[in-house]
Design brief:
Mean pLDDT: 91
Radius of gyration: 22 Å
Low-confidence stretches: 433-442
Number of strands: 7
Number of helices: 17
Shape: globular
CATH superfamily of the largest domain: DNA Cyclobutane Dipyrimidine Photolyase, subunit A, domain 3
Helix content: 40-55%
Strand content: 5-15%
Distance between the termini: 50 Å
CATH class of the largest domain: Mainly Alpha
CATH architecture of the largest domain: Orthogonal Bundle
Largest sheet: 5 strands, parallel
Strand order of the largest sheet: 3-2-1-4-5
């Protein structure tokens, strides 16, 4: 049988169960589809993919292409809508089977179903490569997934398992030949933007694996992770593995296994546990997205708690541009625009500001993060925004941070605000309203 393997968020050769299944074919066509919809404005005034994500993704694709060559393969990069690209390739190359990783997100599910509808004679298979566990190895059914993270964590930790260990796959060293190489239409892809300043991440499997090894076994920063993780602007304060995890250049099971190996060979303490704890949060939101589907993107969230639907254009613009009344928020938003990354603490601070001080629909903030963050992950992003807005997995309601107290605690000397020009812009007042700026109701 000839198989088409559709790379999505699994841009690696190590621990890739979906690619392993695809390798058991007579012939194999490896494909990645760059969707033009990613670069067009969406309903919340943001693009799906901004410059930082696109540059990191392109770097990851180029490394994947280089890794496939010694295995007798190459990566066909198609620019177009998957619902058109995949069926055309299936027909042109007489494909009998299409395989990809199982993805959270309603758009991804709709694309998959639309392609299946066009190809009723083709076999379609999905494999779980983004998560620690498979659905069948979870200690609960998807329907009975707890409504809070703590309930999920307790059930998982009761099993004593940190991943679906029996499913961990070695790095592939051989692949079947291709049925023919279609012409790549890479010339239609958007240009790869040059960063305005040095960026903290380089895409690709080798960079992700190196960061994992450096953070754990070379520099041993994992041993103090719990104490340092809330730093706003320190590259070694947290693992910063999320960009590679987000596009699948790095396997989350590889990270979990590495934590266990570190604990067995070096030290096991509260900090090493806390990195695993953060992986478990990511896992929870993955299954949370799978369970709740389109409710992940609704204004009132999975809890159906009524939230304001008003939209103040000048407030949202000020938040994005780093010109609010709050220097700490401005600094974090400037850092996000310049680098495509901010710390987890900064994300909570700016999200609280948007939801509470600026009184905006949380979905606009989620959409801006989706465009800007190099480590954007649909489940974690929208799950965390719902949590912050009090309509998701947090039973205590909206999280409202005291911004002055946050600044005193996490930037007491003002160096973060100074470095990222948090006081540079003329602040836009919250209640500046004229004929063009009345709130828009949706």
């Amino acid at each position: 049988m000839t198989t088409l393997y559709w790379f999505t968020r699994d841009l690696r050769l190590h621990d890739n169960a979906a690619l392993l299944a695809a390798s058991k074919s007579d012939m194999l066509l490896c494909v990645y589809v760059v969707n033009p919809r990613w670069f067009a404005p969406g309903p919340f005034q943001c693009r799906t993919m901004g410059d930082h994500r696109w540059r990191f993704l392109w770097q990851s694709l180029m490394e994947l292409e280089r890794s496939l060559r010694p295995l007798g393969q190459r990566l066909h990069i198609a620019f177009g809508e998957p619902e058109a690209v995949i069926p055309e390739l299936v027909h042109n190359h007489r494909i009998g089977r299409v395989i990809r990783s199982r993805l959270p997100g309603t758009r991804e599910a709709d694309e998959w179903q639309a392609i299946k509808n066009k190809l009723p004679e083709t076999v379609f298979q999905q494999f779980e490569t983004l998560s620690l566990f498979t659905e069948s190895s979870l200690p609960m059914t998807l329907e009975s997934l707890p409504g809070t993270f703590s309930g999920f964590r307790k059930q998982v930790e009761k099993t004593g398992e940190r991943n679906s260990g029996s499913l961990r796959i070695r790095t592939l060293t051989a692949l079947p030949p291709a049925p023919g190489y279609p012409e790549d239409n890479r010339g239609e892809c958007p240009p790869i933007p040059e960063p305005r300043q040095p960026v903290p991440f380089t895409g690709g499997e080798s960079a992700g694996l190196k960061r994992l090894d450096d953070y754990l076994f070379v520099n041993h920063h994992i041993a103090t992770y719990k104490e340092t993780r809330n730093a706003l602007d320190d590259t070694e304060a947290s693992s910063r593995l999320s960009p590679w995890l987000a596009n699948g250049s790095l396997s989350v099971r590889e990270v979990a296994d590495s934590i266990t190996r570190y604990e067995d060979s070096q030290v096991k303490n509260e900090s090493t546990y806390w990195l695993w704890f953060e992986l478990l949060w990511r896992e929870y939101f993955y299954w949370y997205a799978m369970k709740h589907g389109s409710d992940l993107f609704r204004r009132d969230g999975v809890q159906q708690k009524k939230r304001s639907a008003s939209f103040y254009p000048h407030r949202f613009k000020a938040w994005c541009a780093g010109s609010t009344e709050y220097p700490l928020v401005n600094a974090a938003m400037n850092q996000l625009r310049e680098t495509g990354y901010i710390s987890n603490r900064s994300r909570q601070i700016v999200a609280s500001c948007l939801v509470n001080e600026l009184e905006l629909d949380w979905r606009y903030g989620a959409a801006w993060f989706e465009e800007q963050l190099v480590d954007y992950d649909v489940a974690s992003n929208y799950g965390n925004w719902q949590y912050q807005a009090g309509v998701g997995a947090d039973p205590r309601g909206p999280r409202h941070f005291n911004l002055e107290k946050q600044a005193q605690q996490f930037d007491p000397d003002g160096m973060f605000v100074k470095h990222w020009n948090g006081n540079a812009a003329q602040p836009v007042g919250l209640h500046l309203v004229d004929a063009a700026d009345w709130p828009v109701g949706y």
